[in-house]
Amino acid sequence: MAVTAPPLLAVRDSPLGRRLATFMLLGFLALIGAGIAAAWVVAENQRHARWVAHTYQVENVILDTRRLLEQGETARRGFLLVPEEAGFLRSYREASEALSPKLRGLTRLTRDNPVQQRANAVLGAQVADLAVRRQRTFDLLQAGDAAAAREAFRTDSAAGRMRAIRATFDAMLKEERRLLAMRDADLERSEKLFYAILLVAGLLLLGVALTSLATILSYTRDLAHSRDQLSQLNESLEGIVDERTANLTRANDEIQRFAYIVSHDLRSPLVNVMGFTAELEASADTLRALVDRADAAGSDVVTEDDRLAAREDLPEAIGFIRSSTQKMDRLINAILQLSRQGRRVLAPEPIDLAALVAQIGETLAHRLDETESTLEVAGELPVIVTDRFSIDQVLSNLVDNAVKYLRRGVPGRIVVRGYRAGARAVIEVADNGRGIDARDHQRVFDLFRRSGTQDVAGEGIGLATVRALVFRLGGTIDVTSTLGQGTTFRLNLPLTLDLQESKE
């Protein structure tokens, strides 16, 4: 007996099938549109973030230039007081040699800003005039005329040249902070636009999912009616009916689960960009599974463009969003972490450096044991009056770096030593690790700059933070190192931190 299948089984040609295909296509288009729009907004966010980073870079160069000028003035004052101490002359020359590259860098970084360029021109003239007067002081001292040198210094101090230079620096920093506020506002607007795009895409997906669910439920009721009709058909069709019913039931269950997941997740608040990207990725996986099942069932509802969008275009767009947002998140967090160091209130107190190093050793005891390394104090360390948190952060970072960058197969040996030099303390942290290339001795203190093979985790902010903290403590830091032999970081700090000077 020939039996004809009920018309309700003609899924592909029914209005329900066409509606379901339309809703699936809308879902694909919504995901693709969200991905493209989100990628564009992320690119805008990155552009704004680069300008924010540029502003912080200009501020860092301004602060570095100011630090070098202050270092030169400190060396000048120290040499006047203690002419026999060659370290002051050496410090002055080092600061003078490093000053010109900083001024050129400041000119290069601010060439897009006429206001800063004018201020930079004023600064250049002020620095040139100060350099001539400083050199005259040193020449008089070296010629043995200390009285004339002190008189020249008093004349310069009375003229307020350093105050004028500081005022120029303050004006440049004020301009950068104005630009930073504008660029932060642009970045915030981009982020709000990104959230708005994601919200619109989410609402579209929710609407498509709910409509699809209603269509599926209606279709399920029709299938129940079809099963009642199939029970009266020829036994030869029972196997086909059972197979088709099972396939449709599985498909229905999968679609219902997909609709539940999407509707449930879209009820949750959009906490952050990366969280919603994960939701898009989960939805994309489900849609790819639907395309795969449609292909396996021989359905021609899904076109080649749909397959390409589901399997290649959409994952690629989501991957770009994820990697871009993660990179942007790390960049901003690093800059904010560094900027916060400059806003914390310092609280000077007597610090027993030997006891502090011992505490750091206890904290890192496990890692020291793992790497067969030792941390020791050589000789007697001076007691200084400074901010405990800051000096702890500085020494912890330096010791931690020494443990990180050991030579393979060589037990690590980290030595902390120090001595007094007039009214200042010199502290050295030396190791026998892999060393730093001579070309990177200064660059390792720059933000996001790392030296050598990048085989250990890190963002390149540790030494930049150390330098910022040391500067706030009224000191300087330098490094000497030989590749394959070891590294020595040298801190020069005041024995007693003067909060008034640290604010200048």
From TrEMBL:
Entry's transmembrane regions: 20-43, 193-219
EC number(s) per entry: 2.7.13.3
Source organism: Sphingomonas corticis
UniProtKB keywords: Kinase, Membrane, Phosphoprotein, Transferase, Transmembrane, Transmembrane helix
Keyword Protease: no
Keyword Hydrolase attached: no
Domain Histidine kinase: 261-497
InterPro entries cross-referenced by the UniProt entry: BphY/WalK/GraS-like, CHASE3, HATPase_C_sf, HATPase_dom, His_kinase_dom, HisK_dim/P_dom, HisK_dim/P_sf, Sig_transdc_His_kin-like_C
Reaction(s) this enzyme catalyzes, per UniProt: ATP + protein L-histidine = ADP + protein N-phospho-L-histidine
Superkingdom of source: Bacteria
Xref: SUPFAM superfamilies: ATPase domain of HSP90 chaperone/DNA topoisomerase II/histidine kinase, Homodimeric domain of signal transducing histidine kinase
PANTHER family in the record: BACTERIOPHYTOCHROME, TWO-COMPONENT HISTIDINE KINASE
Record's protein name: histidine kinase
MF (Gene Ontology): kinase activity
